[in-house]
Amino acid sequence: MKKIFIALLIFFSLFFLENSFSKDKKDPIKMSYGVHIKKINLDYKNSTFYAEFYWWLLFTNDSAQTGISNDDILELEFTNSFEEPVGHFKEGIQEIQKLGNSKYYYSGYHQGNFFFNCNFEDYPFDKQILTIELENGLLTNDRFLIVPDKNSYQRSQMNENFWGISKTLLERKKVNFTINSSNIFPSDNIYNTDFGDINYPKNSVFSCLTHKILIERNIMPYITKLFIPLMIILLLVYFVFFIPADKLDMAAGLTVTSLLSAIAFQFSINSDLPEIGYLIYVDKVFYATYLLIVLAMAESLWTFYLDLSGEPNKIKLAKTIDVLSRIIFPITFGGLSILFI
Predict the structure, then answer these.
(1) Triad 16, 17, 22: Cα angle to 5°
(2) How far apart are CA 317 and CA 306, in angstroms?
């Protein structure tokens, strides 16, 4: 009986201690954040983009209870911003409202540059993901959370696939990209350090809000600037198959000129891109062009020596090779261009 009494006493003691601990443990402050982007300009060469947007945030905070001031909550920063000074977020505040019951509303405006990870493997058919990441640099995620203001977007009856993007930006014409989708979601940034503060855990976790915008390059400008000039170069090479076999000097002139033009053209195209360590679609198309030019030159030499022999069968073979080349040349280039995609 005594053992049962002691066991019950320990059980109830642990139960009350757990309840007491749960009451002392405070829920993190949850801040709702919204954004309305009205302008985006891309700089592919430097892997950055410029954005202008309105932002707003709502949160409930009783500093006497939480021990966290509103200034601490507003220690927000765009973690992928470019050359943005510390505290720049607060400088963009335009309106402050106290809505009662310790509820606050802030709104403002931001303009600046952001980094993004470029992927040019399919250039100029490439798609890019632009990101804007917001994080509180002071409060860990057990004390502070950032979530998207879904209620605001739903009230405005915006398409969920384009939350945070202005209608004006979506309908802009004569720009070099199209916005395919927009996604705003919370996440965590994990830092494997305590930043030298013994009050921090060894792995510090901060709440982060990520805005991802999927864009696709408009291809029409590149048809006129890239593919049409390249087609003209290949057309000059194609004329080689219509030149008489004994006119080797004319064939050599066309192929050499076309090869030099293609090399210069590739350097011109790549000058608009950053230095990258992998082959892109355009590079593969140019390499296919070089290969076809070399093969066209080899075909000219072959038919020249066949014709030079003076033998009827070899002369006839030279003409047959020219005819077949006129068919195989464009099919090969078209097939390789599709294969590379």
Answers:
(1) 95
(2) 8
